[in-house]
Design a protein that fits this description.
single chain, 161 residues, alpha+beta, Chemotaxis protein chec, two-stranded antiparallel sheet, 8 strands, 34% helix
């Protein structure tokens, strides 16, 4: 498995530790890191972005394509790299979420890990529930954005369900 998939709810203990879902740990470990990388989101929403080393390297490549002295690159690097944290798994598969990221996302006693392919998100459960309702309403309008690379999966004549 090379991607983060699924939704898992876990408790944060009094020390700020949370158990990373086993399937998410497996993805990151397969990519060569016994931990995860977390950083603030670039989009609106109260959550933390997370990934393994493969997506982190992609972020580096995206930043490398920008003018190294541009204001935009400096700001993006500040958020994506400067505010990021490499969090190593303990013997029980837990990581210690940094205070700044927990506060940013409004995380207190419980989190929802949400897979997003090459990355994942860590949400406060109520915030994710509201986001999920909105996503379910809006996602039918995004269907055309998904284009299959396999001819056998393309609908005939553009018809839908």
């Amino acid at each position: 498995m090379n991607s983060f998939r699924g939704r898992y709810t876990n408790k944060i203990d009094s020390k700020g530790r949370v158990s990373v879902p086993a399937k998410f740990r497996a993805v990151s470990i397969a990519q060569g890191l016994n931990g995860i990388i977390c950083f603030p989101p670039l989009s609106e929403g109260k959550f933390i972005e997370g990934c393994g080393p493969a997506f982190s390297e992609e972020i580096d490549r995206m930043l490398d394509r920008l003018d190294p002295f541009s204001e935009e690159r400096d700001m993006l690097a500040s958020v994506l790299l400067g505010e990021s944290a490499e969090l190593m798994f303990d013997a029980d598969g837990r990581v210690n979420l940094p205070d700044n990221l927990r506060e940013l996302a409004g995380l207190t006693d419980e989190v929802v890990f949400v897979g997003a392919g090459p990355r994942f998100q860590i949400w406060e459960p109520g915030a994710y529930a509201a986001f999920a309702v909105e996503a379910q309403k809006r996602v039918p309008g995004f269907r055309e954005l998904l284009k299959s690379t396999q001819a056998s999966l393309r609908p005939e004549g553009g018809g839908g369900r």
